[in-house]
Amino acid sequence: MHTKWTARRLAADAMFAAMVTVLAAAAIKTGNLKITIEAMPVFLGALLLGPVDGMVIGGIGTLLYQLLSYGVTATTALWIAPYVLLGLCVGAVSARHGYACTKRQLVLLVVLGELGITALNTASLYIDSLIYGYYSPVFVFGTLPLRLGICAAKAVVFSLLLPTLLRITRRALQPRAN
Fold first, then answer.
1. Which helix (H) or strand (E) holds 142?
2. Using alpha carbons only, what angle is made at residue 128 by residues 123 and 129, rounded to the nearest 5 degrees?
3. What torsion do the CA atoms of 107, 110, 111, 113 make, to the nearest 10 degrees?
4. Which percentage of the chain shows pLDDT scores above 70?
5. Which of 43, 70, 77, 108 is the most exposed place for a label (fewest CB within 10 A)?
6. Model's pTM, two decimal places?
């Protein structure tokens, strides 16, 4: 679906980034556990528009959430990086396959993407806890099994929803004949 930098494409990037911000803010948060579907717009944008758009969507959407929730901190970039990398990697794979990934490829991308986000967020939590002096192995790693379970559940849900959402979103992004 890769297209030139058009107003429609820029509007799609802005819409997806805004969705990331809103979904991150609407997450269920308890301590160091956050249940969110903020990755879905990054997946959609990267799969439909490519790696650059995926990085922009993940980066701007997460940056806005971080700024609105926490301001600028020493670790802000660490919390943004997982979604930038998600957009880059998923978009690159999608581009390689002509923006038409099979269901099997989508499932693999979602599983690897969610595992990557979980791993990078755990690393960010670890570094953040060391910098700000609240490190405890139980706090940083104690919820990892639960977070991996949530990761698996989200991968299943995303894998089931993505084919339909891609079809609908692709149609909405297509230029219409005059």
1. none
2. 100
3. 150
4. 95
5. 70
6. 0.93
